[in-house]
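hey so i finally got around to running both of the ones u sent me last week. sorry it took forever, my laptop kept dying halfway thru and i had to restart like 3 times lol. anyway pasting them below in the order u listed, first the sequence line then the structure token line for each. didnt double check formatting much so if smth looks off just lmk and ill redo it

first one:
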Amino acid sequence: MGLKPDKSKRALPSQTEQNKAKLLKVLRKNQGLVSTACDEVGVSVEFYYYHYNKDLEFKQQVDLINEKVIDFAESKLYEKIQEGSEKSIHFLLRYRGRKRGYTDSIDITSDGKNITEIRLIPIKPKRDEDGLLTEE
């Protein structure tokens, strides 16, 4: 008669794996705030970033949490837009309506081509007979 392995005794996750699982749980709870989650779990921020950069599965789960946070924020933005908030409308148009001209930046192009050279032309200040700068 041979001994059968006891299936109830499975390998427990390592402390590192337990901490990463706790981090993910806390990140979900606190909207992805890394330092807050690390403090609550009792690990360093360096621990978080090490595993974020080295463990693809952990990174994907964190990125998914962050995407959900952005989705939540966008839903709140749309609520404000529906309420008529001019600031929210302006914000959306500035970042999502650029192709239609809603932007704070200036497109520096020439005939549809990017400018590759900029020449500065020095302007000599006008001075009076005493050598002092004059306004003109």
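and the second one:
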Amino acid sequence: MIRKISALAAAGALTLAGVASAAVAGTYSGKTSQHDGTISIKVSDGKVVHVTFVAGNGKGSGCSSFAAPDPQFPVSFKADMPITKNGTFRGTASPRDEEVFKLTGRVSGKRITGSFTDAIPIGQLTSHPLTCSSGKVKYTATRG
């Protein structure tokens, strides 16, 4: 009897260990707190695997004159950000030369909410590096 209970407990533990997250695979799309900004996050196998975002005309980013005419937007890149059992994830990527994109979020049902920052070195000003930074940008995206 004790062996049967131990075997059942072990099987249950293995089943729980195999549950990576509550995130449902699919593409979650939505808006950012930047004017007209958009974001798309692809989830597969319990991970964020792809991110695409479009800066909202550079408004509110501290980079208006740089970001608005930039032909490189939208920015799209592969990611590898595991989603925890409680639905949270975080990670850093470098989608372009020296760019640093930091993403955090929480998956809940058909929705992901979170924030990101994006910083791009854009040159030198007198011997001090000049960096275009988005500051903290919030987003909400839904699975469609």
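quick thing i noticed on the 2nd:
DSSP finds two helices and nine strands in the chain.
anyway thats it, ttyl
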